[in-house]
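Notebook entry, structure prediction.
Reason for the run: the old model in the group folder had no record of what sequence produced it. Starting over properly, with the input documented here first.
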Amino acid sequence: MIGYVTLGSNNPDRAKEFYDQVLAPLGGKRVFANDRLQFYSGPGGGLFAVGAPWDGEAATVGNGAMFGLPAPSHELVDEVHAAALKAGAKDEGEPGPRTDTFYGAYFRDPDGNKLCVFKLG
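New structure, fully documented this time:
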């Protein structure tokens, strides 16, 4: 249902290195870039972009904004969360069940953007 998401970064080179490591276990690969943004895609066909804001101002995180990355298994949720922490993320919630049908793990990227990797069911 979501076609793409863009996260701002104040250090796009660092962000690309971070997301190369975090998105790889989910099948995410760099697909194209422009002078500001690096786009990733993988299974499911959506796009994930990271880079400098269009207006040239500093990137900031949204209060209450969070983006979810679907995973096909609980084990992959665990793997992606570990990869994020190893790549420099801040832990915002260890992997585990949140409801009877939602297994998730939470982290903030080096720019402070909050993400969740999750498995439904």
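Summary: The chain has one domain: 4-53+67-120.
The old model has been moved to the deprecated folder.
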